[in-house]
């Protein structure tokens, strides 16, 4: 005997509950052609997209209507990408991908030091941007233990350092350290094996994932920013050691 079909309304609600939640991406660029083409690509891949053509409107929009990730250009009217990124980092560790031209190496490094998680140079492949967005969202979900990400491993304690992946929380001597997604993963990779030297390539794999290329100086910039954040609450912080020409390690207690 054939079973009865559930009522259409209930079936629709059940199907909706099974569908993964769409991520919302903010695109901030004063080049409307880039905004339109990237928006179409991301929406075709299932993302919700909000676009802004200047830094001021983007800051207001991101503070009042949070998103899952933002892609920021440098040169924009009313507030450039650098200032926007700096203001965002005083209020949020929102995952951020920074856009810069090939001849703006100084800006790339400055963007990382201000707290960008990743950067892409213009002109860029939209497929590359899509893959970087997906990779950063996966990393963010993994550190927070959200559905769709890897299961969070819980807490990691190393002396005065405490990392809680489920809350994306980093404490040093009981004081909160606001880390971006990339910074959190770097600290976790180093602190997980105190005394063990991690090469820059190993840290790139830990923070960005395999098969993603970033320059070695990107890791150096992130580490400098991490140290600065810890030293804002503890002038004597020196747990992350540099082994010149080799990499970094977390000092054993």
Spell out the helices and strands N to C: HEHEHEHEHEHEEEEHEHHEE
The CATH topology of the largest domain corresponds to Rossmann fold
CATH hierarchy class name of the largest domain? Alpha Beta
Structural class by SSE content: alpha/beta
The number of strands is 12
Mean pLDDT: 82
Describe the main β-sheet briefly.
Answer: 5 strands, parallel
Largest beta sheet: strand ordering: 2-1-3-4-5
SS element count, helices: 9
Number of domains: 2
| Termini separation | 69 Å
- Gyration radius from CA atoms, angstroms: 20 Å
Label the overall shape.
Answer: globular
Based on the structure given, which CATH architecture of the largest domain is correct?
3-Layer(aba) Sandwich
Describe the structure.
The chain is an alpha/beta fold and 253 residues long. It folds into 2 domains: 119 residues, Response regulator (Rossmann fold), CATH 3.40.50.2300; 97 residues, Arc Repressor Mutant, subunit A, CATH 1.10.10. The chain contains 9 helices and 12 strands. The strands form 3 sheets. The protein has a 5-stranded parallel beta sheet, sandwiched between helices. It has a 4-stranded antiparallel beta sheet with strand order 6-7-8-9, with helices on one face. The longest helix has 19 residues. It is globular and about 55 Å long.
